[in-house]
Structures are given as C-alpha cells and as structure tokens.
Amino acid sequence: MKGSIMEKYVHNALQFVFPKNCFEELIINFNIFHPTCPKMVLSRVLGLGITAGSILLFVPQIIKIFNAKSAKGISLISQLLALVAAAGTASYSFNKGFVFSQWGDSFFVAVQLMIIVMQILYYSDASAYAFAFFAFCWAFVFAVIGNYVPSDFLTLIQALGIPITVASKSIQAWQNYREQSTGQLSLVSASMQLAGTIARVFTSVQDTGDNLLIASFAIAAVLNAVLFVQFFLYWNEAKRKKMR
C-alpha cells in the first residue's frame, strides 16, 4: 500500500517536471535537441527552485529588523505596495488555475512582506495597527480561496501591479538615494529578489504566455537591479557613517 502511494507521488512529480512526453524524449531517447521539451522542463525546474527559494527570500530582512528592533530606512509605503503586487500576482494566478510553481513564490513573498509591514508598524508609533493588519490580510486570503473575490477585480489588481511595482521600487530607491544609504535593507534578500524576477520572466513565457505576468516580472527585474546596485554605490558611505 505504502509502495503504491509512493509510486503515485513519484509519478505525479515526474509528470509535473516532465510534461507531456518530455520524460520519454529527454531521459529515455536522450533527445536533448527536442524543439520544446528542454525549455519546458527548465521552466518547471526553475519555477520549483524559485518557489523553494522564496520561502526564505525575506527571512534575512525580517531577522535584521528584529535584531535591530528598528525598521529605519525601510519605506512603509514601498513595502505595502510590494505586498499588494505580490498578493495580486498570487491571487490572479490562483484564480487562473496556473501551476503552483508559477505563483507559489508570490504567495510566500506576500506572507513575508506582510510580516515586514507588521514589524514596521510594531517598532513605530503605530504598533496597535500591526495585528489588525494581520487579520485583514488573512481575511483577504480566505476570500480569494473561497472565490468571493470577482475574477475581474483580480485581473484589475494584476494590471495595476505594474505601476504599483514601479511606485514601490522607485520609492525605496529614492529613499536610499536621499539618505545615501540602504538602511536596514538586506543585501541577501535584494540579491535573491533580482535573481528570482529574472528567472520568472523566462518561466512566465514558458508556462503561461500571460503578457500581464511577463511585463510585471520584467519591470520588477529592472527595478530590483537598481536597488541591488545601490548597495554597492552607498557601501563606503555607510562605513563612513559608522566611523563617525
């Protein structure tokens, strides 16, 4: 009995990673020049890798804020906008029935951004709002799962995700420029974000062909690159401030 259950899980996993007849083409026939299978399998593997990596994406950021007992240098508006964009992508993709590896990272990112927003509120004068915000977020999750949110509204959120992403990243980049510092932002999280959004452009093209998702991730990749570069632009400035 246990053997048959295990075989079923293995079979389903192989079917997911090697869709259609790709297992036969790539593994059995070793036809690595098949016109579609290599790209499809690479997209699935990348999607799983990004989803797995996203579970820890903002953990360094969360730990850094917790240890400092401060969210100085992190824009609340920027994080809220990023949360709306991530939650919008996850909700839209769930509603469309896309494979979990295509949107699982957006869900995990949204959960972690929710925690960061709660930290910003908790370590500020608005600590009373932190847990109310938590309740609101999970109410929205259950509303999406229960199909209480209209599909047109989720499509609208996804469409607005592009200007929201631009606004979110631009606000944080401007704050970094104004202060000549990246504050409590985590370089590890920023690096993982950049790599993840670049890979997501490829997986979105392969797995969904959805222009809204492709455009969202492409723009996010460019803006994440700007934030990543700022760490090195203001690295020496941060050292000088510590020495004063």
Output the CATH topology of the largest domain. Answer: Monooxygenase
Relative strand content: under 5%
Q: State the order of secondary-structure elements, H for helix, E for strand.
A: HHHHHHHHHHH
Helix amount, in percent? Answer: over 70%
Structural class: mainly alpha
Overall CATH architecture of the largest domain: Up-down Bundle
Q: Number of DSSP helices?
A: 11
Secondary structure: number of strands: 0
What count of structural domains? 2
Round the mean pLDDT to the nearest integer and report it.
84
Largest beta-sheet details: none
Morphology: globular
Radius of gyration: 20 Å
Poorly predicted sequence stretches spanning 5 or more consecutive residues = none
Provide the CATH top-level class of the largest domain. Answer: Mainly Alpha
Measured distance between first and last alpha carbons: 68 Å
Protein name: Mannose-P-dolichol utilization defect 1 protein homolog
GO biological process, one term: oligosaccharide biosynthetic process
Pfam family, one: PQ-loop
Membrane topology: Multi-pass membrane protein
Descriptive account of the structure:
It holds the Pfam family PQ-loop. This is Mannose-P-dolichol utilization defect 1 protein homolog. It is a multi-pass membrane protein. Belongs to the MPDU1 (TC 2.A.43.3) family. The protein has 244 residues and is mainly α. The chain has helices at 2-17, 22-28, 37-54, 59-68, 76-96, 100-122, 130-145, 151-179, 187-207, 211-233, 235-243. Helix 5 (76-96) runs antiparallel to helix 8 (151-179), helix 6 runs antiparallel to helix 7 and helix 8 (151-179) runs parallel beside helix 10 (211-233). It is globular and about 60 Å long. It starts with a helix and ends with a helix. The model has no long low-confidence stretch (mean pLDDT 84).
